[in-house]
Amino acid sequence: MEPRISLVVPARNESLWLPALLDSVHAARARYRGLVEVIVADNVSTDETAEIARSRGCRVKTVEKRVIGAVRNGGARAARGEILAFVDADSRIHPDTFDVVDRCLEDGRFVGGATGVSMERMSLGIAAAYAALLPLVWATRMDTGVVFCRRSDYEAVGGYREDVRFAEDVDFLWKLRRLGRSKGQRLARPRGAKAVTSTRKFDEYGDWHYVTNLGRSLFYLLFDRAGIHRFADDYWYGDRARHSPPRDT
């Protein structure tokens, strides 16, 4: 039998974080009536990421291009499910995730969507960063967490952009949103299945760094386009802050 849902996990050197995600996937699979395959899109890891994934029954797809959109697309190309879902390796999914995703896409009102997230820990600085993004989420219905859509719609929008170093997830949801409007559909933000997302960037850079970086990023966009690429290379593509395992909740 072919899987109903393919969960794609982009990963590079995530051996400390991947086991917790896969534990949560196992719990969600146990509640779901259909079949789920897990594809770890390994971005040429130098640690045991691929070995851990294989030992846990995941399919591993090696993707060499060092761009996150290419890694997501590489995993999607290997997928067999009629529903594609994407989640970062340093997250943990809710036990009801697959049931919620399936129900959303059985409902003809939705083109796709995202489950949303809760933070693995909270502080004043993290809360401020979270609050800064909420108006945009409410206005556009574009959220994060486990992002999902039908394979046919993923293909219709061309998947994730591979010519940008960041914000490929925002662009992907924007394209899905536009496609949905053409069919009388909208993005879903289902309740009851939020993923738990890592705070490792806050652990590394400080709890207020995200708020500070919003202003910094705006400056780069307006006055120094090369600067935004240097920032992205350091912030998202530097192999740092991978030494702390996820916290228990």
Q: Could you list some keywords that capture this structure?
A:
single chain; 249 residues; alpha/beta; Spore Coat Polysaccharide Biosynthesis Protein SpsA, Chain A; 7-stranded mixed beta sheet; 3-stranded mixed beta sheet; 10 helices; 10 strands; 17% strand
Question: Would you kindly provide a written description of the structure presented here, covering whatever features stand out?
Answer:
By secondary structure, the chain is α/β, with parallel strands linked by helices. The chain has a domain at 5-121 and 141-196: Spore Coat Polysaccharide Biosynthesis Protein SpsA, Chain A. The protein has helices spanning 18-31, 49-55, 68-78, 97-106, 124-140, 151-157, 168-182, 200-205, 209-223, 225-237; strands at residues 5-11, 36-42, 59-62, 83-86, 91-92, 110-114, 117-119, 147-150, 186-188, 195-197. It has a seven-stranded mixed sheet, with helices on both faces. α9 runs antiparallel to α10 (225-237). The termini are far apart.
Sum this structure up briefly.
Helices cover 46% and strands 17% of the residues. By secondary structure, it is α/β, with parallel strands linked by helices.
Order of strands, widest sheet: 3-2-1-4-8-6-9
Largest sheet: 7 strands, mixed
CATH architecture of the domain at 5-121 and 141-196: Alpha-Beta Complex
The protein's oligomeric status is single chain
Number of strands: 10
The overall pLDDT average reads 90
State the helical fraction: 40-55%
- Number of helical elements: 10
The value of Rg in angstroms is 17 Å
CATH superfamily of the domain at 5-121 and 141-196: Spore Coat Polysaccharide Biosynthesis Protein SpsA, Chain A
Overall 3D geometry?
Answer: globular
Instruction: Give, in order, the helices and strands.
Output: EHEHEHEEHEEHEHHEEHHH
Question: What proportion strand?
Answer: 15-25%
Low-confidence stretches: none
Assign the CATH class of the domain at 5-121 and 141-196. Answer: Alpha Beta
Structural class, please?
A: alpha/beta
Termini Cα gap = 35 Å
Under CATH, the topology of the domain at 5-121 and 141-196 can be stated as Spore Coat Polysaccharide Biosynthesis Protein SpsA, Chain A
